[in-house]
């Protein structure tokens, strides 16, 4: 997909285009018009809540929650519209990749596994995940998007950087859907815990609280989560909070105390300590440059 205006264009090459769109004060019922090019794959990351999407090649109108995404293939050029119903911010990042680039990258003729991956992409099997809902972005996906948005070099270095990050995003997507195939029959403890954290990390939660709410022993929570995701529950919660804080800190209209509360910290000093540990500077220093 590409926005009809080049506003927010982050990167463009023969095979790849990346657009960052943010409409802070959309008029009620106003729509952003998008076009999906012929024979292309589109990665669309929805970074604000309650975004409606309607495409002329789909009979369904989608309503996306914040931090959901889709990987969509279009064989022919098609149009789509995005809008909100309540004058909310419309913010998304889209990556468009042409078919030949993906074909060469996956090399479907080299193995049946690779051929199946490309077939699933073409059939748009990477749009919906568990219970027919669009998948949610993982922490790693958030980190990659932040890196793509903030990368400042141009030319060959930027092209190599972008291509490496796109490959990593695709690997994360394939892993997420492979995990789905396993948990559809019997959701594992680590998946249940991760899903709960993804939806509640902004609250003041701990492993003990998760254990009480889910009925899972807190020692089992800690052990299985770390075995699956190679990080502790508390580290994962902190990572999500810091990603949210870094995005909010650039808005000087939001007080540091408000950001702390929004990110799940009851006390500002605890938030400041965690922020400095993560980024090497205090929230005030990062905000003031």
Descriptive account of the structure:
The chain is an alpha+beta fold and 289 residues long. The protein folds into 2 domains: 2-183, Jelly Rolls, CATH 2.60.120; 189-288, Arc Repressor Mutant, subunit A, CATH 1.10.10. The protein has helices at residues 99-106, 112-122, 139-150, 156-183, 189-200, 207-214, 218-229, 233-248, 256-262, 268-279, 283-288; strands at residues 2-3, 9-12, 16-23, 32-36, 40-46, 51-55, 61-64, 68-74, 78-83, 90-98. It has a 5-stranded antiparallel sheet with strand order 1-4-9-6-7, with no helix packed on it. The longest helix has 28 residues, at 156-183. The chain is globular, with a radius of gyration of 20 Å. The two termini are 34 Å apart.
Short description:
By secondary structure, this protein is of the alpha+beta class. The protein contains eleven helices and ten strands. The chain folds into two domains: 182 residues, Jelly Rolls (Sandwich), CATH 2.60.120.810; 100 residues, Homeodomain-like (Arc Repressor Mutant, subunit A).
